Amino acid sequence: METIDIIYMLIALVLGAQICRLIPLVLPKTIISHPILQKLNRILPLIIMILLVLTSLALPKEGTGYTLLIAQVLALITVILSYHWFKNILISVSLGVLNVNLLIWLLG
Q: Which InterPro entries does the record associate with it (predicted)?
């Protein structure tokens, strides 16, 4: 990829992020307080997290890699349980990373 292409991509990313931040300031309050947008605002973070989790799992190919998948699923369960218990994202993610590495070490 050429340097100019990287610069164009960086400019597009910055403009896209800034436009997303400025739209709520410009739109009328009646549009922002619409029930569909309020529901989307509540459910969108969960959908994004589900997509990130599903795309991050290493699915086994041709009968190999099941130990990694098992370690990742057990680490995800650890993250969910620890977040439910501690209500702290930093602790939950740290325990998940620690758990997946320990499980890979133990199972591998």
A: Brnchd-chn_aa_trnsp_AzlD
